[in-house]
Amino acid sequence: MVLNLAASRFYDYAAMIATDPLINKDEKISDEDAIKDILIYHDFICRVRDKTEKFYIATATSGGKNGFFPKIFSWFRDNKFDRTLNDE
After folding, report:
1. For the chain (length 88 residues), average pLDDT per consecutive 10?
2. HEC profile for the chain?
3. CA 80, CA 72: separation in Å to the nearest integer?
């Protein structure tokens, strides 16, 4: 079931079932290699999701050009614009 959920991209549910504390220790499915890979990938997805949320919050609340992220965006935007002009 965990593998099928992960194959359907339901990593949250797959990880929830794989780490269910109600499963007996003798029947722990999280010890299998394929399940471990799913749990590692789920952890990665959670970290990316958290960083993305923080990124968008910081971008939305930075107050114009005072924040770090708007400076990065403006740098990329300006450099891309400069490269576009130079290519013509």
Report:
1. 89 87 70 85 92 78 59 68 56
2. CHHHHHHCCCHHHHHHHHCCCCCCHHHCCCCCHHHHHHHHHHHHHHHHHHHHHHHHHHHHCCCHHHCHHHHHHHHHHHHHHHHHHHHC
3. 12
- Asked whether the beta carbons of 4 and 18 are under 8 A apart, the reply is no
Question: Does residue 86 contact residue 79 with C-beta atoms inside 8 Å?
Answer: no
Residues in the chain: 88
For position 53, what pLDDT does the model report?
86
> Which among 7, 5, 8 has a CA at the least distance from the CA of 19?
5
